[in-house]
From TrEMBL:
Organism of origin: Marinomonas balearica
Keywords associated with the record: Hydrolase
Cobalamin synthesis G N-terminal domain sequence ranges: 37-118
Protein name: Cobalt-precorrin 5A hydrolase
Gene Ontology biological process: cobalamin biosynthetic process
Record PANTHER family: COBALT-PRECORRIN-5A HYDROLASE
GO MF annotations in UniProt: hydrolase activity
CobE/GbiG C-terminal domain residues: 127-250
Length: 264
């Protein structure tokens, strides 16, 4: 979830404008007790957009910060919407991407993105990996996919491909999901997916005994983005699941972009 936190009436109006333009947003105005409530949001993994002074955010979140690899995205905006700053988890948590989305969606506010992390001009490739029960209904797949994207502040148009294991090459509703959103649907062999084992966040012995890999969604997302980018993949969102399906997100920065950055 993307949670927008405001403290002033002007900030609240900006929050409401943002929530109308970005999916998966919830407005929280002047929560009380402020420190404890905000820290709870952070610890449960919500992406946070603060409309207030940067110092307030730093002092509030400092006690609960852990790692850029696990902390959620944190952004700060002024109450006039003039600037948006990715403050925490710019690359790993998706704060840079979310800030870029805000800059585009708030063009009428003349919002300017203020980026401070390295290599911010590199455009990443994002891929989805999914596994599911045989003949899983489309609704289960689509709801889980949209939840995954919302958790990282992504939209369907940001995704390059939907990926799975080759035994799912004829899975009707995975194919239908890809077609609905205009994605390529690609499946891979057990041997190919097995090369991603060291990059998995979780490993299931049951899944391994059933299909031959320790996790379909994570493995497929990682291998798919490695193939698309020609570069080292990273797991952006570890596997989430519902009653019938699993879903994961991966990201990589294209090798050609990295080479261009080294020449600059």
């Amino acid at each position: 979830m993307i949670r927008i936190i405001s403290l002033t009436e002007r900030g609240k109006k900006l929050s409401e404008a943002i929530a109308k333009r970005l999916q998966g947003c919830e407005v929280t105005h002047n929560p009380k007790p402020f420190k404890e409530t905000v820290q709870d949001y952070f610890k449960q993994g919500d992406s946070l957009i603060f409309i207030c002074a940067t110092g307030i955010v730093i002092r509030t979140l400092a006690p609960v910060l852990e790692s850029k690899l696990s902390d959620p995205a944190v952004l700060v905006m002024d109450e006039f919407g003039r600037f948006v700053i990715p403050l925490l988890s710019g690359h790993e948590g998706g704060a840079n991407h979310l800030a870029s989305q805000l800059e585009k969606q708030l063009a009428d506010f003349n919002t300017q993105l203020v980026m401070t992390t390295a290599n911010t001009y590199l455009d990443p490739i994002y891929t989805l990996g999914m596994g599911c029960e045989r003949d899983c209904p489309l609704s289960y797949l689509e709801e889980l996919m949209l939840e995954a994207l919302a958790l990282k502040g992504l939209a369907p148009e940001d995704i390059r491909s939907l990926n799975s294991i080759d035994i799912k090459s004829d899975e009707t509703h995975l194919i239908a999901l890809a077609q609905k959103y205009g994605w390529a649907y690609v499946t891979y062999s057990v041997q190919e997916l097995g090369t991603m084992e060291s990059r998995l966040n979780s490993r299931s012995e049951y899944v391994y005994k059933t299909v031959g890999v320790y996790g379909v969604a994570e493995s497929a997302a990682l291998y798919g983005v490695q193939e698309a980018a020609g570069a080292t993949p990273e797991l952006l969102l570890p596997k989430i699941k519902n009653a019938k399906a699993t879903c994961a997100l991966a990201r990589a920065y294209p090798a050609s972009n990295r080479e261009a950055s080294r020449r600059q």
